[in-house]
Amino acid sequence: MLYNSFDEVPVPGPHIASNFHPSMIQDFYRFHSDTIIDFVKLQARILRKFSVGRPLTTNLYPSPFLPIIDMVELSTYLDYISWDNYPTWGEQEAPFPHPFLSAMQQYNRGLKNLPFTVMEQISGFQGHDLLGYLPAPGQTKLWMKHSIIHGSNAIYFFRYRTARFGQEQLCYGILDHDKEKTERYYELQKGIQEIKEHAEDFTEELFPAQVAIVHDIENARNWKHQPISTGLKFSPVPWAQLGYDVEMATWFSGMNVLNVNTHFRPASTTDFKDYKIIILPMYTMVNDVVFKRLEQFVREGGILVLGFRTGAKNLDGWMYDSPIPGPFTEMAGIKVRKFEAVGNQKIKFQFRYFPGICSKICEILEPTTAEVWARYTDRKKFYKGSPVITANHYHKGRVIYVGSSLESLSFVLLYRRILKEAKIPFIFYGQNVEKIFRIGRKQNYEIFINHSGKKSLAGLKILDPYEVRILPKKK
C-alpha cells in the first residue's frame, strides 16, 4: 500500500469492515511507543539538566505487556526500574497466582538485570469503585517479603493513611481513615523486623539463575492484535488484552513450581551465554539479529525451548514463504504445515508415561531430524498420534519444540526432563510453596515461601500459613 502523505494514514480503530492490516496495527503500536519514549526522554533531559546527580525513575505499569510500550528502550533513560505491585485490585475475588506475581517481579528486575524499586506496594485492599478480596492476616507481609526476595531493594507502600476524599478514598492503606494503628500496621512492622538483617545482606547482589524465560515486545504487540485462538484472547477490562501476559506467565510457572531460580529477560538485550536454558515462547516475529545469537547459543551447547507459532513472520509482518518454524526449521528439526486453534478446549496428550493437557493452539509437528517426546492422544481429534513436543540435537546443543499451550502441571513434566539434561537441580513441594536461592555478601540463603493460608510441607519443614522462612547458608 502506498501513501502520498502522512495525512492519508488512518489510525487503527473501530470501523465497519474487518480489522486493519496487521502490519499497519504493528506500526501504529511502534509509533505509539516511540511517542511515549520520546516524551520520557524529553523529561529526563530537563530533569538531568536542573537536578544534576539525582537518580531518575518512573513507575511502570503493573502488568508489563498490558501497554505496547517498549519498556526496554524506555528504561535506558532511567537510572533504575520501579513498578507498582498489586497482587489483588478492585473486585478481584482472589489474588493473582504466585507464579504470575513472581514472573512480574522478574520482568521488572530483568529489564536492567539489576535490583528494582516497588514504587507502590499494596498495603490494604484497594480499588476505585469496587472492592473485592480482603488479604488474610500475614498475606500483606508475605507480598512485601516476596518483592524483596525477587529483587527489590526499596519499597514504598501505597498508602500510609487512607484518603478521606477523592478518587482513591477506597484505596485502604496501612492506616484507615481514622488514623488509628491497624492490624496491617503491626503486621508490616513485624515483617520488616523479620527480614531486615538478611535483606541488607542480599538485596544489592545479583539474582542468580541458569534459566531464562525470554520475552519480546514485537511479539507482545503482534499477539495483542492477532491472538489467533480465543484461548489467547483475555480482556478483564475492555481496554486490556492480556493473552500474551498470561501465556508467558504460564511458561514461567513450571520453573517456578519446580523451585528453579529463573530470570524473565528481554530478547533484545539478553546475553544468552549467561544461561544453560533459554525458553522462548510465542516468538512469531523473528528478529534476524536475535536469531543469529540464538543459533550461536545452541551451536555452542545451550538448550533452547521454542513454543507454538515460532518463526511465522518477519518484522515487517510478512509470513515467511516456508513452513513454521521458518528460520528455526533446521535447528528444531521439524516442520509445521497444519494446526488448529482450539480455544479453551482441553486436548489430551501423552508425555512418556504421563498424561498431559494442552489447549489454545495445537500444531501437528512433522519431524525431520527431531525425536518425538509427546503425542496427542485425544480421541476427538483426527491428529491423535501426531507429535506435539519434539527434541532435536543441533551441533553441541538441543532445541525442544512445544507445539501447544500446556497446562501448568504438564509444563512441570516437560521441564523436569529438560532440567535433568541440563544437570540443573530442582524440587517440587506442591503448588503453594516457592523456594528461592539468594547470594549475599556474607552468607547465602535458602528461602521458603508458603503462599497458602494453610500449613504446607517443604520436605521435612512445616511452614505456617503465609510464612516466609529464610535459612542462611555458609558460602
Automatic annotation (TrEMBL):
CDD domains: A4_beta-galactosidase_middle_domain. GO terms for molecular function: beta-galactosidase activity; metal ion binding. The keyword Metal-binding applies. One of its GO terms (cellular component) is beta-galactosidase complex. It catalyses: Hydrolysis of terminal non-reducing beta-D-galactose residues in beta-D-galactosides. Pfam families: Glyco_hydro_42, Glyco_hydro_42C, Glyco_hydro_42M. Residues 3-197 form the Glycoside hydrolase family 42 N-terminal domain. InterPro entries: Beta_galactosidase_C, Beta_galactosidase_Trimer, Class_I_gatase-like, GH, Glyco_hydro_42, Glyco_hydro_42_N. One of its GO terms (biological process) is galactose metabolic process. SUPFAM superfamilies: (Trans)glycosidases, Class I glutamine amidotransferase-like. Keywords: Glycosidase, Hydrolase, Metal-binding, Zinc. Residues 209-424 form the Beta-galactosidase trimerisation domain. The keyword Iron-sulfur does not apply. Residues 433-472 form the Beta-galactosidase C-terminal domain. Its EC number is 3.2.1.23. Belongs to the glycosyl hydrolase 42 family. This is beta-galactosidase.
